[in-house]
Design goal:
Blueprint: H1 2-17, E1 20-22, E2 32-36, E3 44-45, E4 48-49, E5 61-64, E6 69-74, E7 78-81, E8 107-109, E9 123-125, E10 131-133, E11 136-137, H2 140-143, E12 151-155, E13 160-164, E14 169-172
Parallel strand pairs: 1-2, 2-10, 4-5, 8-9, 11-12
Antiparallel strand pairs: 3-12, 5-6, 6-7, 12-13, 13-14
Length: 174
């Protein structure tokens, strides 16, 4: 009963506020849909995808389990490799065959109903004027002791995106 009540309160808060802070009391400003706290050495883990067929939304970020790379979709049909290093590995048993994807299982965060309701994804940030702030970690390659394949974080020391392909970290700076 406690889990049901907590879930209902969580979804009511998301619907009412359309901004979510995880592991911190609130988001930093009105331009943020989803923000993670920076007190722990943790990143986010992307979904392990074995087939990119049917994924058409630009900006989608995945961990491609077929070649062990973190990729994002740009220009509708072009997947950009963020891993660079081709030697990644992943234990796909955590998403074993006994787990069946439920087509309607997703969370959408937005302030008003929109066409984004039709977008496919586990987590859809639907506002066109808000962004997600990644977990902030000082030197994730040194401080995240046991990273999982498909992990992303913002390196606060080098001020760049850090992605882990299951074997090595890759860093991206604009």
């Amino acid at each position: 009963m406690k889990k049901i009540t907590t879930t209902i309160i969580l979804f009511a808060a998301i619907a009412a506020k359309s901004q979510v802070a995880i592991d911190k009391p609130n988001v930093t400003n009105g331009s943020v849909s989803l923000e993670f706290g920076d007190t722990e050495n943790k990143g986010i883990i992307l979904p392990y995808v074995t087939s990119k067929n049917g994924i058409t939304e630009n900006g989608t970020i995945i961990y491609d389990a077929s070649d062990f790379k973190i990729k994002y979709l740009k220009d509708t049909n072009t997947w950009f490799d963020l891993s660079v290093d081709p030697t990644g590995t992943a234990d796909l048993s955590i998403q074993g065959s006994e787990k069946i994807e439920q087509p309607g299982a997703k969370v959408t965060i937005y302030s008003t109903a929109s066409a984004n309701d039709a977008l496919q994804g586990i987590l859809v940030l639907g506002d066109a004027d808000k962004a997600m702030i990644l977990p902030k970690v000082a030197s994730p390659h040194l401080n995240i002791i046991n990273p999982s394949a498909g992990m992303m974080a913002y390196d606060t020391v080098k001020k760049q995106l850090a992605v882990y392909n299951g074997k090595v970290w890759t860093f991206w700076k604009p």
